[in-house]
Write a structure and sequence with these properties.
Blueprint lengths: L1 E5 L6 H11 L6 E4 L10 H9 L3 E3 L3 H6 L10 H13 L2 H9 L3 E3 L3 E4 L15 H10 L4 E4 L6 E5 L5 E5 L3 E2 L5 E5 L13 E7 L4 E7 L3 H10 L4 H9 L2
Parallel strand pairs: 1-2, 2-3, 5-6, 6-10
Antiparallel strand pairs: 1-11, 4-5, 7-8, 7-10, 9-12, 11-12
Helix pairs in contact: 7-8
Bound molecules: fe (ii) ion (FE2).
Fe (ii) ion binds next to loops.
């Protein structure tokens, strides 16, 4: 099975369309979305409609839950909070129901999905280092766990001696004796200094996880943010990849 695995669209339709365009030529059979369809930018409803048109399995992100009052914005930055208030005013009923329906985790025989970490997924903690990864590794009942949330693509690998290493932006061949936490980065607001959209392909037969980047029209996405009256920083940061 070939899976498209992606996260953190954040209402950026230009980035989403570019990534889905690439997936369309990659013989994808199933789409795996790791949360944060909305927030920060101005196309929440088109982005939700677009991903719902796909054979999709999805989990909730903190911005998805905040947009439908299931998660507090108290710890959000002022810009993120303003964008959530804007999003609440601009969601339609269908989109609200979709966001409300998203679960925090998903698991099949092969992989687990969560936005942040498997320990208290409802708190949306960041997978920032090996100590935090260790807790998720301990809770994993599958060889792979796909995550998002930090907007930085990379892979934590735990070997049979329980050593954990981290490789930023790396593709990996899955080996039976290891466990993997794969952060697929962000489609709509990368934060590793590279503004190109992040996306991932998982081929379960070939046992290969590939992390990729693709340029998109940032100027169009930025202008929409400014024109909607959202904080200019939210547009500017797209060019910086921060
Ligand atoms: Fe996010």
């Amino acid at each position: 099975m070939r899976y498209a695995v992606f996260a953190d669209i954040h209402s950026n339709l230009e980035a989403l369309e570019r990534v889905l365009g690439v997936y369309a030529s990659e013989s994808i059979e199933q789409y795996i979305f790791l949360g944060d369809a909305v927030g920060y930018s101005v196309d929440p409803v088109p982005c939700i409609q677009r991903i719902r048109s796909l054979p999709l399995t999805a989990v909730a992100g903190n911005h998805d839950q905040a947009a439908v009052n299931l998660f507090s914005v108290d710890n959000f930055s002022p810009e993120a909070r303003e964008a959530i208030f804007w999003t609440r005013r601009n969601l339609d009923e269908d989109s609200k129901q979709f966001l409300e329906s998203l679960k925090l985790t998903f698991q099949n025989h092969d992989f687990t999905m969560v936005h942040g970490t498997l320990n208290s997924p409802q708190d949306f903690n960041y997978m920032e280092d090996g100590f935090i990864a260790e807790e998720t590794f301990r809770l994993m009942k599958t060889p792979l766990c796909f995550i998002g949330h930090t907007h930085v693509a990379g892979v934590f690998i735990k070997d049979k001696e329980d050593h954990i290493c981290y490789r930023e932006n790396a593709s990996v061949d899955i080996e039976a004796e290891n466990k993997y936490i794969i952060n697929v980065g962000s489609v709509g607001q990368p934060r590793d200094g590279n503004p190109a959209a992040s996306y991932c392909i998982y081929d379960s037969q070939a046992k290969k996880v590939t992390l990729k980047r693709i340029d998109y029209d940032i100027a169009v996405a930025q202008k929409k943010i400014v024109d909607a009256g959202l904080p200019e920083l939210l547009g500017h940061r797209l060019f910086m990849g921060r």
